[in-house]
Amino acid sequence: MIMELQYTWQILGTTAGATAAVLLIVQFVKAPLDKVWKIPTRLLVYILSALIVTGARFFGVGEVSWDTVLLLAVNAFVVAMAAMGSYEVTFAKLEQAETKPPGVGE
């Protein structure tokens, strides 16, 4: 059995799907963006979260109305915080382990 891994607007409409997408995209674009513009990572994460959450709403449901804009902004904060937390749990610990001198913390 071959399992296809792909994003759909329904998956991006979930907190877990949007969080995973934001985490992966930020890891991919952060270093090249830093060479051109010094964008704070938290701002980049929130902007990307807002774009994904809004896109999932627009392409999944078919509309974004003014009464949902505030909810989309709040949901973008939830996704951004989850993505930053996921980064701390995974990638940051790997980076710390690589930079730690031998024998420290063992």
Structural class: mainly alpha
Number of domains: 1
How far apart are the first and last residues' alpha carbons, in Å? 43 Å
Q: What's the overall geometry?
A: elongated
Task: Average the pLDDT over all residues and give the rounded result.
Answer: 84
Taking all Cα atoms into account, the compactness measure Rg is 17 Å
Task: Describe what you observe in this structure.
The protein is mainly α and 106 residues long. Helix content is 75%, strand content 0%. α2 packs across α4.
Index terms:
single chain; 106 residues; mainly alpha; 5 helices; 75% helix
Fold blueprint:
Elements: H1 9-12, H2 15-36, H3 41-61, H4 66-89, H5 91-99
Concise summary:
The protein is mainly alpha-helical and 106 residues long. It has helices at residues 9-12, 15-36, 41-61, 66-89, 91-99. The chain has one domain (22-96).
